[in-house]
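Protein entry
_____________
===
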Amino acid sequence: MQEPSTDLAALSVPLVGQLVATDDPWEPYRLLDADAVVVDAVSAFLRDLQASGRPGATARSYGMDLLRWFRFLWAIGVRWDRTTRIEARDFCRWLQIAGQPTRPHWRHRETQTGRWAPGGKPYASTVRAHSETVLRCFYDFHRDIGSGPILNPFPLDRSRRGRRAHAHRNPMDPPRNERSGLYRPTLPKRIPRSVPDEEFNEIFARLPSHRDRALVAFYVSTGARASELLSATQGGADPGRQLISVVRKGTGETQELPASTDAFVWLRLYQLELEDEVPRGRRVPLWWTLRSPSKPLTYHAVHRMFERANLKAGTSATLHALRHTAAYRMAEDPNLPLTDVQFVLGHAQLTTTQIYLTPRKEEVIRRLLAHHAEQTRQAAARTSVPPAAGYRPESLDVLFGTGAR
């Protein structure tokens, strides 16, 4: 019997449905279908996710993965509770080949409809791995409560089932992940990208306002995430002790982070500029927009600001690379223990902080080029012809200028 399979080459997946944010603390995000009807299966899963203590950012991330999956199901005409491993397999293949969709311009969203087209920018392997994990958890949840398929369409790898976990493992090696999904892609081991000093100075010189300079100075000195620094309040900035309080992304707890003197200098200049434009109060947000009427600054506005500065400087650094830059700078300081770096960065495991002990790509290239230059010099010295009899080498060095090299 031939298995049913979707013709992915001819499949057209329109960008219907959406994940909307609400003001309801009991349901911060909702997934709507093409008719603007709430998808109850996703709402039940997000409620269970909230009960387990996951923050709203996690619910949004999971919701976007589920929206991508439901759009695929709506395009092939299969209900979510009738899916099999065949649809899951084709979905993972489709993510690899179709790539990211072409989205309509924000000025013409009412008249244009985005859709997936062949040859788009491919999804990163981390995005596809996260999507596979989210969908496997989604179907595990509905299988356990009896509202979904009996068999999870995103199963674990068959080669890892039916054997003892961590069998034949060297106790000196870290344990491997024995619960990898069947359709989970292999993730490359990447080195965190930091911004070289010359490139950072070029970007910093292109920042147009004191607010932007203060933000970048805090990012590169505290190592805080972009969303964490935007959670700071006016009462959380303490220039006397050079501390700024942020809300951690994972735990939701408030933590004081030390920052550089330059960051507080730019912060004070920014506050003097907007002294009469923004409200005052200890619990009032610290960062505001520069255009009137002033509003609390959002992550997307900061991200766009940094993109414009990169465009002017002719660089390709990202906003999150500032956190990696701060981590590298702290890890390279011999007087700063790695456990202190772990505390400042907010890592749960020290092994996560240890990745910043890996040499930077720029430093490796510089040392290797110096190595090759030294090898060339030594080879030239070995092949130099000795002077003829009757000539003094030091006199020839003076005559030809080789002694100063």
